[in-house]
Amino acid sequence: MAVDVRLPTVLRSQAGGRSSVTVDGSTIKDVLDRLVAEFPGMTGQLLNEDGSLHRFVNVYVNDDDVRYLSDLDTPVKDGDEVSLLPAVAGG
Amino acid sequence: MLRLPRDLYLQMVAHCITGLPDEACGVLAGDAQSGTVERCYPTRNAAASARVYTVDSGDLLRADRDAERVGIQLIGVFHSHTHTDAYPSATDIDQAPDPAWHYVVVSLRDTHPMVRSYRIAGGRVDEESVIVLGQSAVAVAV
To answer: All domains of chain B, ordered by start, with CATH?
Structure first.
């Protein structure tokens, strides 16, 4: 399954300045694994050491935040758009 | 330097006041090079708290897409402090995602709102000036 991944500006420098990349995968976990395999500089910003999703990143499949779906197990299919955005929070 | 058209400045402050007693938040889009805000997107505070904020993830995605559609990008975030100074809290500094962003804090501690802006990189906080521009720009609700 080939999906387009939209990258936030803060991650584009890790991907040669590109705003989106196409990767294969059937779940969000696959997609993020491929992404960090290709661009190791993103690893610490996307995933925790135990492989779980970093709390400072939002991951969406089309219009939906994967935290409200099945998190890393959320399935993706051909043509889906995955968006990554920094989670914006503070006090 | 953060350059904010007057109507967007007022929209931002109004959203913060409307959000009381909770903290309110939103994101700003525009030209990263000059630090000029062209659109203000008030968002929901998913934390619904007087102490902390989380920009609602759905609102954030809609803002990002709208900005991209018109050829600009997210360049900052604003949020209110309901009872403290317009200075980033330890949580703000810890959770600042992008060193290129402008971090605007609207303090509602006193009768008159106080708006200040900062750059936050690697735990270091630098205040920057906020210029309110007279011209009008586009205000968008998400």
So the answer is: 2-139 (3.40.140.10)
